[in-house]
Write a structure and sequence with these properties.
The chain is 38% helix and 20% strand. The protein has six helices and seven strands, in the order E-H-E-H-E-H-E-H-E-H-E-E-H. Strand 1, helix 1 and strand 2 form a beta-alpha-beta unit. The longest helix has 26 residues. It binds 5-O-phosphono-beta-D-ribofuranosylamine. 5-O-phosphono-beta-D-ribofuranosylamine binds next to helix 1 and strand 5.
C-alpha cells in the first residue's frame, strides 16, 4: 500500500511514521511547514486553498494528487484543515487522523491545552478514520495519558504516545489491506 502523509506544521508524527513505514508522498497546505523538509528522498507537494478559486477546486486538486501518486492511504498528521468530499470520495475509508485527546472529548484546535485547563484526571490520544466533521469519524485506537503538572509535560507525554501509536496503527492497517 502506498502511504501519503498530510501535515501543516512540525511533522514530528511524520518523522515517527517514516521511521517505521515507507512514505510515498508528503503534502502540506503550508509551504513553510517543517514537515516538508524532513524526508529528503520522498516527493513532497504544497499548495493551499488560496491558490484556487474555490475550496472545492483545492479539494479536487488533492484528489488528483493522490491519484497521480497512486496513494492508497492518507495519514493526517497535524493537517489543520477539514477534509472535503472529493478527497473522501477518492479514498473512502482510507484517510486516518491523529488527535491529541480522548475523543469525543476536546475536539478541534489546542486539544492538549483544553484538557489541561479543564483539569481532567486523564486525557490521551485518538486515531480515527476521517469523515466530513472535525475530529469525528470511527475510532480505531485510543490510549490514555495521565494529567501532568505542567502543560509542557502533558504535551511531551501526549506526543511520545502519538509517536509510538500512530506508526503502529498505520502499520496494522496497511498489513490488513495488503
Ligand atoms: C499532533 O499533536 C497531532 O495529534 C495533532 O497535531 C499535532 C501535530 O504535531 N493533530 P506534528 O506536526 O506531527 O509534530
Amino acid at each position: 500500500m502506498r502511504l501519503a502523509v498530510f501535515a501543516s506544521g512540525q511533522g514530528t508524527n511524520l518523522e515517527a511514521i517514516a521511521a517505521r513505514l515507507p512514505v510515498s508522498l508528503v503534502f502540506s497546505d503550508r509551504a513553510q511547514a517543517r514537515a516538508l523538509t524532513i524526508l529528503e528522498s520522498v516527493p513532497s507537494r504544497t499548495f493551499k486553498p488560496m491558490d484556487f478559486t474555490s475550496r472545492e477546486d483545492y479539494e479536487e486538486a488533492l484528489a488528483a494528487l493522490v491519484e497521480e501518486f497512486a496513494i492508497d492511504i492518507v495519514a493526517l498528521a497535524g493537517y489543520m484543515r477539514v477534509v472535503g468530499r472529493p478527497l473522501l470520495q477518492a479514498l473512502p475509508g482510507r484517510i486516518v487522523n491523529i488527535h491529541p485527546s480522548l475523543l469525543p472529548a476536546f475536539p478541534g484546535r489546542d486539544a492538549i491545552t483544553q484538557a489541561f485547563e479543564a483539569k481532567v484526571a486523564e486525557t490521551g490520544v485518538t486515531i480515527h478514520y476521517v469523515d466530513e466533521g472535525i475530529d469525528t469519524g470511527p475510532i480505531i485506537a485510543q490510549e490514555k495519558v495521565p494529567m501532568q503538572d505542567s502543560l509542557d509535560a502533558l504535551e511531551n507525554a501526549i506526543h511520545s504516545v502519538e509517536h509510538r501509536l500512530y506508526p503502529e496503527v498505520l502499520a496494522q492497517i496497511m498489513e490488513e489491506n495488503t
